[in-house]
Amino acid sequence: MSKSLIARARQRLEQETGCRPHPWGGRISVALVFPNTYYQAMSNLGFQTVHHLLNSREDTLCERFFLPDPEDLAEHRKTNTPLFSLESQRPLGDFDLIAFSISFENDYVHLPTLFELGRIPLFSADRGERFPLVLCGGVCAFLNPEPLAEIVDLFAVGEAEVLLPSLVAALKEKGESREALLNHLAATEGLYVPSFYEISYKPDGTIDAIDAKPPTPQRVRRQWAADLDETRSQAFIRTPETVFSDMSLVEISRGCSRGCRFCAAGFIYLPARERSLNALLPQVEEGLCASSKIGLVGAAVSDYSQIEALNRQIMDRGGHVSVASLRIDSLSAEEVEALRVSGHRTLALAPEAGSQRLRDLINKGIDEAQILDAARLLAEGGILNLKLYVLIGLPTEEPADIDALLELMARLREVWVTTQKKSGRLGTLTLSVNPFIPKPFTPLQWAGMDEAKNLERKMKQIRSAIARMANCEVIFEPVRGAVLQAFLSRGDRRVGRVLPLLASGKNLKASCREIGIDPDFYVTRARGEDEIFPWEVLDNGVRREFLLSEYRRGLGGMLSPPCAPGCRRCGIC
After folding, report:
1. Taking the CA of residue 339 as centre, how many other CA atoms within 13 Å lie in the half-sphere pointing to its CB?
2. pTM, rounded to two decimals
3. Among the three residues 221, 255, 285, which one is the final residue of a domain in this structure?
4. 527: Cβ–Cβ under 8 A, 6 or more apart, which residues?
5. pLDDT digits over 95-128, tens only?
6. Domain at 205, CATH number
7. Which range marks the domain in which residue 146 is found?
8. Using an 8 Å Cβ cutoff, are 330 and 303 in contact?
9. How far apart are CA 88 and CA 37, in angstroms?
10. What is the number of structural domains in the chain?
11. Do the domain assignments include residue 239?
């Protein structure tokens, strides 16, 4: 074992405040692994929440593992030091369960490295009785688990608060063999054991059938917490090594009812739920004991029904408020003032597209006047800089839509500059351009992703135009990373074999060629309306017919109202 790596782990522990695991002995032990660095992991609220939930039980203990930082990874390999836990420096093989928390598909590429360092075979078929079971949870587990189906033994399909009690109860049956335990787990609601499902393919490579072996259900139903007031999700551990080191995070809501047709989070977390103000205030007060700033977390923070009251309660207690982005059509002067007083110099809006035609296609439900009014409200409220998120490569996108985006940016700049000159300050407008990726369980899952060469051409046009606008800048999500994300998020279980090649440094095309698959089959190909999707081994509660009707409405330029409780259009609210 490397002394420097041990010292590094202990230094991080000394810097932390908050939750600590139980001592070893007589408890189910869980190795909670985040497939990225400590900095990224400790910025993830879901990862922190699972760690807290497990260590709040008397019958379990949970310790954390991370992808080593680049310099630490070199030290691991130089000294032949296996991957070890942060808390007790134990190896992965000492634990009863290895649980990966995965929120981002591109982190799949780190799995071969983590298994190699952990001295654990990557593919489940190569692991016998002496190895712990490998579980995957997090957003990716109930968005599309199939790319990891030959690696992971079981997936937690849904929210941890509901799933963990039954999972732990099954694991306590220590006398069972691996096969018997998997049989038990496969029959448990919300747990997906891929080895119990056989996938057959048509000659064209699309899925012919998904067959479940008894006693497993044909489709695994996503589990979700009906009452968020009975749960807590916040930053339970504080550390200076995180992007949120200056604030305490509190989740105020989960899901979104807006129905933006490109947004996976808007569908896989339905029904939209929120915590009551009475439930949140004790968490806010606890957070303010550690930091003067409260970071509000949710897919639709501005839509929280008591947002102004919550902001006021935080500020009345001497605290400040932080949010990631704002809703264009629900922004208020009071909310802007709360954020200004809290020290925000930069805030973000998401018009998503420049033309009204494309905004209607994705069901954004806003027009240009609302976008300009929101920018004016922020400028008048004393916010110095504005960031704007947009997508390119949406279905049916034409050159005129890119022109409309640039025209919108010019008008936004005019509003921003004119308004800010009155106060004698002039900030920066930043356009963040992201390639559209058709995600599972959304109405646009039938669409293909735009080709890389088209995206690059559009980016070049945008870059050139923005360069001529004073006080404006543009940043782009790299096309290569977006293509990889599309490949991994839309793939079936055959794509998992590419991961060791990607981890070795080969690019996507070369890796796919080596194992005999075509990346365009997964990335740019439009799907047939009757095609079986790999992820339909899961049932997230939203009816396929509803998603397809929304896809057709989008292509026809028709808007849809938000999903309301009891409306039953989507099948779950």
Report:
1. 30
2. 0.95
3. 221
4. 445, 446, 447, 448, 533
5. 999 999 999 999 999 999 999 999 999 999 999 8
6. 3.40.50.280
7. 3-221
8. yes
9. 18
10. 2
11. no
